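Hey, weird one. I pasted the GH25 family lysozyme sequence into the form twice and got a warning about non-standard characters only the second time. First submission, copied straight from the form history:
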Amino acid sequence: MFGRFAMPENRKEHVDYGIDISSWQGSAIDWNAVKSNNISFASVKVTEATGYINPAATAQVDGSGSASPTSRAASWT
């Protein structure tokens, strides 16, 4: 029986780890450090509802591409 977050041994090599970033992290993210920690994707908070746009979103998405994790833009409502 598996625990809530347990994964069968034969599937562990297929796990992708990612990070969630927003304006709180700013645009000075060390993407090489992110990559060296086996992070394969970044989810970037771009907007929230209709009154907020992350001012660092463009730099965050562009920067993540320099270290080659996949970027995913996200909007919270």
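That's the output from the first submission. The warning seems to come from a hidden character in my clipboard, not from the data itself. The radius of gyration is 15 Å.
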